[in-house]
From TrEMBL:
The lineage of its organism: unclassified sequences, metagenomes, ecological metagenomes. Residues 4-119 form the Response regulatory domain. InterPro entries: CheY-like_superfamily (IPR011006), Cyclic_di-GMP/3'3'-cGAMP_PDE (IPR052020), HD_GYP_dom (IPR037522), Sig_transdc_resp-reg_receiver (IPR001789). It holds the Pfam family Response_reg. Residues 153-245 form the HD-GYP domain. This is Response regulatory domain-containing protein. PROSITE patterns: HD_GYP, RESPONSE_REGULATORY. GO terms for biological process: phosphorelay signal transduction system. PANTHER family: CYCLIC DI-GMP PHOSPHODIESTERASE TM_0186, CYCLIC DI-GMP PHOSPHODIESTERASE TM_0186-RELATED.
Length: 245
């Protein structure tokens, strides 16, 4: 598919020269003023604009600045064409966003070379932009997947903690309410320590959550105690007490 070039010049002779030079290689459109250029860019969507500086009304500098300041057209490359040859004129062109500058009278081969360079640069930049968008999309999907997997791991962990706590409760009928009390006491004490005392800088929301989730497991060791010892109604012997410890 041929790339598109918009020629902007209020001199019909200059436009005709450029059309003859470019019509076999590119799809062309023309504009005779800066305002007409801005209107045609929205419809024609050129890859490159060849923009004369000295035009009545809005000159090439202002037209270039407006093209580059519009998010819809800022990626359009612009070559300024002018009889002005001073370094100041060139620098002003680059300041308003021009990608290149060629002075009149120009050599046709040089202009064609500049056009090809700018079109290759634009294509490369568009490809990079597309790749960046794809990478950003993949990163977003990856972040969502990590968040989902993390949530699943946390849910599984909570289920395991709950199951272990219920297992402990099943070994000792009195443990159930005890677990609830320890969980509540741990939460209250930790919240108080977070407000005042030497540990305020160490206790954050994650620490509070970890305490709340893990406190039911403080009696998990009872799971491994034989029933004869765990449920013994009387005083434990020295050997039984060692096992209980």
């Amino acid at each position: 598919m041929k790339q598109k070039i918009l020629i902007v010049d209020d001199d019909e002779t200059n436009v005709a020269i450029l059309e003859e030079l470019l019509e076999e290689q590119y799809v062309l459109a023309t504009a005779s003023s800066g305002q007409q250029c801005l209107e045609k860019i929205d419809r024609f969507k050129p890859d490159l604009v060849l923009l004369d500086i000295l035009m009545s009304g809005m000159d090439g500098y202002e037209t270039c600045r407006r093209i580059k300041s519009d998010p819809q057209s800022e990626t359009t490359h612009i070559i300024l064409i002018s009889a002005k040859t001073s370094i100041e004129s060139r620098l002003k062109g680059y300041e308003v966003g021009a990608d290149d500058y060629i002075a009149k009278p120009f050599d046709g081969d040089e202009l064609l070379a500049k056009i090809k360079v700018q079109l290759r640069l634009r294509e490369a930049l568009m490809n990079l932009t597309s790749m960046h968008a794809q990478v950003s999309l993949q990163n977003t999907k990856l972040e969502e997947l990590v968040y989902q997997r993390t949530a699943e791991v946390v849910e599984t962990r909570d289920l395991v903690v709950f199951a272990l706590a219920k297992l402990t409760e099943s070994r000792d009928p009195e443990t159930g309410e005890h677990l609830e009390r320890i969980c509540a006491y741990s939460q209250i004490l930790t919240e108080q320590l977070a407000k005042e005392g030497p540990y305020t800088h160490q206790i954050n929301e994650q620490f509070l959550e970890d305490i709340h989730r893990s406190s039911p497991l403080h009696d998990i060791g009872k799971v491994g105690i034989p029933d004869a010892i765990l449920l013994k109604p009387g005083r434990l012997s020295a050997s039984e007490f060692e096992i209980m410890k």
